[in-house]
Amino acid sequence: MAGGRIRARIRRSHLYTFSCLRPSATEEGPHSIEGPGYSRIVHCNQPLMHKKKPLNYRSNYISTTKYNFLTFLPKALYEQFHRVANLYFLGAAIVSVTPLSPFSAVSMIAPLAFVVGLSMAKEALEDWRRFMQDMKVNTRKVKVHKEEGIFGNKSWQKVQVGDVLKVEKDQFFPADLLLLSSSYEDGICYVETMNLDGETNLKVKRALEVTLPLDDDEAFKNFTGTIKCEDPNPSLYTFVGNLEYERQVYPLDPSQILLRDSKLRNTAFVYGVVIFTGHDSKVMQNATKSPSKRSRIERKMDYIIYVLFSLLLVISLMSSIGFAVKTKFYMPDWWYLQPQSTDDYYNPEKPVVSGVTHLVTALMLYGYLIPISLYVSIEVVKVLQATFINQDIQMYDEETGNPAQARTSNLNEELGQVDTILSDKTGTLTCNQMDFLRCSIAGTAYGVRSSEVELAAAQQMAIDLEDQDVERSTVSRQKGKQQEIELETVVTSKDEKNYKSPIKGFSFEDSRIMKGNWLKEPKADIIKLFFRTLAICHTAIPELNEETGSYTYEAESPDEGAFLVAAREFGFEFFKRTQSSVFIHERYSSSGQPIEREFKILNMLEFTSKRKRMTVIVRDEDGQILLLCKGADSIIFDRLSKNGRMYEEDTTRHLNEYGEAGLRTLALAYRKLEESEYSAWNNEFQKAKTSIGADRETMLEKVADMMERELILIGATAVEDKLQKGVPQCIDKLAQAGLKIWVLTGDKMETAINIGYACSLLRQGMKQICITAISSDAKEVVKENILMQITNASQMIKLEKDPHAAFALIIDGKTLAYALGDDMKQQFLGLAVDCASVICCRVSPKQKALVTRLVKEGTGKTTLAIGDGANDVGMIQEADIGVGISGVEGMQAVMASDFSVAQFRFLERLLVVHGHWCYKRIAQMVCYFFYKNIAFGLTLFYFEAFTGFSGQSVYDDWYMLLFNVVLTSLPVISLGVFEQDVSSEVCLQFPALYQQGPRNLFFDWYRILGWMGNGLYSSLIIFFLNIIIFYDQAFRAGGQTADMAALGTTMFTCIIWALNCQIALTMSHFTWIQHLFIWGSIVTWYLFLLVYGMVSPTISGNAYQILVEALAPAPIYWSATLLVTVACNLPYMAHISFQRCFHPLDHHIIQEIKYYRKDVEDQRMWSRERSKARQKTKIGFTARVDAKIRQLRGRLQRKQPSLETHSPMSPS
Question: Could you tell me the pLDDT band of residue 309, with boundaries at 50, 70 and 90?
């Protein structure tokens, strides 16, 4: 705390020229707060006043659950009976209590109650987990003013509008607050808004001057005031309001507002008064309600149910018409049925009534066509699939201890059909760490470590050369080419592979300027100035780490931190800042002794996204005034003097090389100032700073711009943006799998573009299309201009003839607001889809959700959104699949997500492995389900037609009960849980296999109807072959013919064998579990027949001793079973044999290679197949390496003729 107080003495606002303009009440009048949208009144320090109407504001309790105690039953039941099959079985269950039912009421109601109950229990469990995570947030503690200047802890959910809160360093704000004062005497505080807009650089907030004395607990004893402001709204960057305090009215703006879920940094504490709570806060206003998501396969299943229901209706109508005809014309002749004393159901005089009642009976009898157990089987399979995802050790993050988590299992198969990924940037792609890698000083490049891009390009070229060497016979020519390549590839140190940076933020390696060796360099003075610029030109605060004795830096951006660490490692350690000076410890000097130097800060012009540069004017110990400037190269080069361009050409070349290597670059320049020149300028600057009026900021920028001219170039820096581990490789693999990747970030454009380069979504040579809004008050003019930019860009892409040309679309939030309008969004989407990369920057959480909705609805393809903060919740909920990053600050994204992973890189395995498997498993499982139910259900129809549409079932009731529950359920569940067309390693080696999902190869209508046709064929074979075999001949040695029980049992045996053999043929991957379930189901059938036959005839009826006495001794029973099973499966065998021979799918080829062990015996062929098995992509690491290789080859081809010209002619 003492340390915080010492630092608090610095008036931090003096460091900022542009961020901390403080209008006073005299300069700028209070806002006009009246009319709709501006009705909120907050009585500060009087929370009880807001409990009365009309100020009855919302509590600070938040909920992200789908259901609550009251809505669970109606909403969950509605969800369940959304499913067509469940609706049908509900109707059947109601009818089952009437005499029309061919089955007992319990046999119809029990399965439905079981299926619906299980699904609802699963929904309740998943929502309970969300509720528990909400409670974690709601029960966090914060200090609240109680009375008499005493503050006590209160849970977040009990915070009310008007409460005065004390928030301490590194705590989140529990509600939207008005900043009253901070631990710094001028009311400055630093806020990290990563959860809101994704930006990592700290924002400076400032309190009103009038509330600065409220800087300790006692000061709030008698504090009161009234805030009149705007109503709750989702705009994060605006706020309009007035504070009435001590009979004065003061205007409020966004720089005094601390938003919920942002975090207090670099400030010991702040006091604030609550304005918006709970769902009224701006971050929650940006959230959308938890939607109910259903996968595409599940939605398509409804249509298949419609088809089957139509089939059911048709055969039921045929059955009822047949029954009515039989009743009218044949019933009078059937004296044994006593037609004269029958009821209405069988009355020859009322055939229409008989037909209609029989229709109801038939609809229930043929209900086996509609698979009720399909839904419960899918639920079981999905829960088990989710368990495998949760238990996957390859997706477990050791650092945070977080595994992957399937928070809902409804969407497992959707993971295998993703077309577009929409990703947040900060905390998702990046881990907010920069590494100083290279620099260019006075036209000389320093730093021998190479970036990942360069290493990969060199490695790939070496592999390509090896392949060429095998084919070439001329050894000398080969050597010449290899030497040429070596000239072009980057210099890397010998211990490249073993090197691991021991210093966070510093990966530089070059003995020429390390350890004081820079003193021996020819331009040592400029090198010293370069290092001093790094150590002086910043706004950071040093903090001594007492354990290590070294300094760490609290910087506004990771870049600044990396520069200071680099300066420290080069021997220029920044260790102290006072109100007017910075102190540098220079380890190496010409005298050989360490020196402490003080530089007096005269002015600081900080970095803004508009200026793209930062300048500090200092006076050194010799009295010399220096202007030190760092910024974007384009900005700095425009401001160089004629004699300051000495190193411009070399530096530009180095900057281009650094850009190609995916590094972030800044140029450094300086200027020596005369005392008189500085004084004159400073007078102008102070005038602008203290001026009153709306154009004050413009005047400041103009005056600053006057001084930042006639600069002399020192050099440039190159830092590697530390992405999260494995991000470039993951993006590369996903791109090879054919996925499109969009980045949606609240960060500024330059940062987003740099990250794009770092993770290979952008690269040198890629044509960037930047859509920006012009400055104009006329909205129509702005809109027309944006539409023209979009139209021109689309035209440019269409006219592009280079097949390797790649386009990247970059757009900011302001422009996006117009582009997402109804009259422009389709043109914008058309352009975005044509581009290889899309980066949207400065977007609000609401815009993220709207972009996601546009892609989802506009393309009609599956979208996946991934993010880690509260600002990503809307996007995560809007996408077909939402993935939250766990283990990063804040759990809002995880709470709203369908799946959570600890790091972005695990998305590769989640999609390419689990997604691919789950899609194929569920698709095959559903197709097989429909096949088996059609094959079984239609045999009931054939038999009924064969027996005069009597409503008679050929099978015993127990057979029918066991069919779905025991005899065919486990094999199909094992298919859905354990099936693998290829192993996980092969999925990752052959990412193009993933495209089978987005192209929906395994669940299109062709395949579905094919399986249904197979079911129809099997039903015909099973019924008619058995009828032909048993109808006209004896089946036992004693000459007895088969009765209905013998025929039904034989047919059922054939069904069990045919269906289980069919699923065995469908599977590609067997474990002992599949064998146990498939062959165990067949054995179970025979055991059941044996046991059932031994039970008393009062229970077993005609099946008494049927296996032992009737069927087992009859050879015809066994031969019929064999014949029917073979006949049923022959067409499928023929189909897959033809397909594998003449039209194999990708996984068929891989299975064959693996079966014949060609991957081990012929590595070259295996590598060739792997390189083929990736989608052609223009983004990702591989695309970048390919571009680099094309560039090197181009140079090689240009140099080859000159090499051949200079080589001596061989004697003839």
Answer: confident
CA distance 736 to 989: 10
Is 642 assigned a ligand-binding role in the annotation?
Answer: no
664 annotated as ligand-binding: yes
Least confident residue range of 106-115, 119-128, 644-653, 986-995: 106-115
335 CB contacts (<8 Å, ≥6 apart)?
A: none
pTM to 2 decimals?
0.71
For residue 1181, is pLDDT > 70?
Answer: no
Tell me how crowded residue 299 is: count the other CB atoms within 10 A of its CB: 9
What pLDDT does residue 23 have?
Answer: 46
User: Of the given ranges (177-181, 631-635, 1033-1037, 1157-1161), which has the lowest mean pLDDT?
Assistant: 1157-1161
Residue 470, pLDDT score = 46
In a 13 Å sphere around the CA of 876, the CA atoms on its Cβ side amount to: 29
Tell me if residue 424 is catalytic: yes
Token pair 């099997």: residue: 1018
CA–CA gap between residue 816 and residue 706 (Å, rounded): 34
Q: For residue 1153, which amino acid is it?
A: I
Give 415-453 as a DSSP string: GGGEEEEEE--BTTTEEEEEEEEEEEETTEEE--PPPHH
- Binding site annotation covers 217? no
Q: Which of 186, 424, 633, 721 is catalytic?
A: 424
Which of helix, strand or coil describes residue 628? Answer: strand
Boundaries of every domain in the chain: 159-286, 289-370, 395-431+724-911, 517-721
1186 is in an annotated binding site: no
CA torsion 670-673-679-685 (nearest 10°) is -20
Strand order in the sheet with 40-44: 40-44, 225-229, 241-245, 248-252
Q: Which residues pair with 541 in a beta bridge?
A: 554
170 annotated binding-site participant: no
> CB within 8 A of 618, min separation 6: which ones?
536, 582, 599, 600, 601, 602, 625, 626, 628
Q: 399, 692 in Cβ contact below 8 A?
A: no
Architecture of domain 395-431+724-911: 3-Layer(aba) Sandwich (3.40)
Homologous superfamily assigned to 517-721: Calcium-transporting ATPase, cytoplasmic domain N (3.40.1110.10)
Closest by Cα among 529, 609, 622, 515 to 569? 515
Q: Residue 871, annotated ligand binder? A: yes
Cβ-based neighbours of 993, under 8 Å, separated by 6 or more: 916, 981, 982, 986, 987, 1146, 1147, 1150, 1173
* Cis before 54 (ω within 30): yes
CATH 2.70.150.10 fits 159-286, yes or no: yes
**Token pair belonging to 288:** 């959308």
Q: Is the pLDDT of residue 340 over 70?
A: no
pLDDT of residue 24: 43
User: How large is the average pLDDT for residues 1078-1083?
Assistant: 93
3-state class (DSSP) for residue 629? strand
The full DSSP string for 949-1014 is S----SS-HHHHHHIIIIITHHHHHHHHHH--SS-HHHHHH-GGGGGGTTTTTTSSHHHHHHHHHH
> Which amino acid belongs to residue 520?
K
CA dist 964 and 971 (Å) reads 11
What per-residue confidence (pLDDT) applies to 426? 62
The CA angle 1068-1072-1076, to the nearest 5 degrees, is: 100
630 is in an annotated binding site: yes
426 is in an annotated binding site: yes
pLDDT band at 500 (very low <50, low <70, confident <90, very high): very low
Which DSSP helix (H) or strand (E) runs through 289? none
943 or 487: whose pLDDT is higher? 943
d(CA 559, CA 565): 10
Q: What is the rounded average pLDDT for all residues in the chain?
A: 81
- Compute the residue count for the chain: 1212
In angstroms, what CA-CA distances link 1083 with 392, 1039, 1066, 1079?
Answer: 34, 29, 20, 6
Residue whose entry in the numeric block shows the structure tokens 């998943």: 126
